[in-house]
Amino acid sequence: MRTTTSQFRLAARPEGLPKPGDWEYVQEELPELAAGEFLVGVSHISLDPAMRGWMNDVRSYIPPVGIGEVMRAAAIGEVLGSEHPSFVVGDHVSGAFGVQSHAISDGKGVIKVDPGLASLPVYLGVLGLTGMTAYFGLLDVGKPEAGQTVVVSGAAGAVGGVAGQIAKIKGCRVVGIAGGADKCRHVVEDLGFDACIDYKGEDVGAGLREHCPDRIDVYFDNVGGDILDAALGRLAMHARVVICGAISQYNATDKVKGPSNYLSLLVSRSSMTGMVVFDYADRYGEAAVQMAGWMADGRLHSQVDIVPGLETFPDTLLKLFRGENVGKLVLQV
Amino acid sequence: MRTTTSQFRLAARPEGLPKPGDWEYVQEELPELAAGEFLVGVSHISLDPAMRGWMNDVRSYIPPVGIGEVMRAAAIGEVLGSEHPSFVVGDHVSGAFGVQSHAISDGKGVIKVDPGLASLPVYLGVLGLTGMTAYFGLLDVGKPEAGQTVVVSGAAGAVGGVAGQIAKIKGCRVVGIAGGADKCRHVVEDLGFDACIDYKGEDVGAGLREHCPDRIDVYFDNVGGDILDAALGRLAMHARVVICGAISQYNATDKVKGPSNYLSLLVSRSSMTGMVVFDYADRYGEAAVQMAGWMADGRLHSQVDIVPGLETFPDTLLKLFRGENVGKLVLQV
Q1: Residues contacting A108, CB < 8 A, separation 6+
Q2: Would you say the ipTM is above 0.85?
């Protein structure tokens, strides 16, 4: 019995925002399972800002997706057939299955997840790479101490929302930056940040002066651009700036905007450090246990923004860059 | 007996490069010495890129020089009269005496120097704040290991020349960046760097690819601008970028040019950290002993560029920004 997968392949390298024509949507018959392989019926696909970077033909922390290849994505699914000794039909699994309805896997990089412990999309959010990024970026790179001030950009986004909540759990004063009054209300009321600055409606520098009277000890940056500059202008002595992402710059057709205020690193003896979550793979278990505990205690909230329909992928991905998602953006197949 | 001092005061806050009219050159009669004070006859004044920053009315690591105040500068001199219990006539001293021929001091921040151990200008160079900046910036912030590749911009300048020599002593491959073939020859032949890229005559990115086949582990930046960007584009994994200065940007009348390649910090999991030498004041002794030893062994060369004539100060200072000095620029009174 052969299975047909519906898949999005990268058809062209985008300039600026990805256009519909940059994708090819095809139905492809999968080969028979070989020994050591299993078939996954994908249920949920993780949509992440980092995907934009994987579409560019430049050196980065992983190779780019090739033209004609299935678009890379983390996903969750159920094992529908197996010739693999460790995976059986009915197992729920998480892995880089790509933007498609079905995938054949050899099990490398695939972990089993328990739908009884958390709903499946949570394994792409707080308990997935999103949560791992927030956890290690904030705690290992940012090193916040109780009583310090932590500022998080993209605070209503998947990573930022988790990073800020962890900082609250650690006893910090936490100020978010997000786009729009609704998002800011969510960040304060639902996620428990102390304050949130609406970069679409407020001057970010003025907001940081108001809400960070003792300046910023840790700045967790997901956006880059002018907001990074505003935060650099408000650093406390020996502050730590965590460069997790730069969503404002990923679709730049011109040069990336460098932080004009970078010399405030010198004035304040601060550091700016890049992080990639894959470096912490051997500690994902530690973070998952910790975060599952916080979720069980009601101290960490999982926010998932689920959009149904694999075929909506090209437009749904753009929600990230239009700033329309609240929490983790997931495509439901 | 009253003494007259000749002094340069800041008359106006410069826009861009300081102009002659931004200074006021005056003769002022000093008051009689009070108890606890002594009179210094200044012999050598340190001219440093950082002085440009002190002329701006912005928050920085020390307050700006006020309009009408004597321009701040480190200097060396001889005690000509004393009502101070610890300083006697004939002592040679180093302190922030300013751009003037004579100064009255209460001894705070002043140290005695021995003209028998090193010529006086060396106490403004390798054995002064210049050397301390290179020593702590390279070793404490850059943390180079033997066999790693260290790149230093402003390599023919006061700090860069010392930083690169220390990196060689520590067993690193050291590549300098300097302006002009003569400076590059000096950096390689006199200071012992492995290579030097002439940013005026060569493409810096191509030079870094050629001379840093294993990429850059430590980048010690004195210049900012396009050269910082080129170095960021060539970082090794877990590299350390030391932000010591940004002489290319100090006279910017427009916004400072931020490093467009800063996201390579993320790709390479690297850090960029600012440093200010004053933070290491309690360890200057350690560094001085170490560096005096290296000088005695002939492993560390002191290079001083002495310009005579206090009255030449406004133009001599500009040698720094025109890139005309080789080694430590000192004004001889």
Answers
A1: none
A2: yes
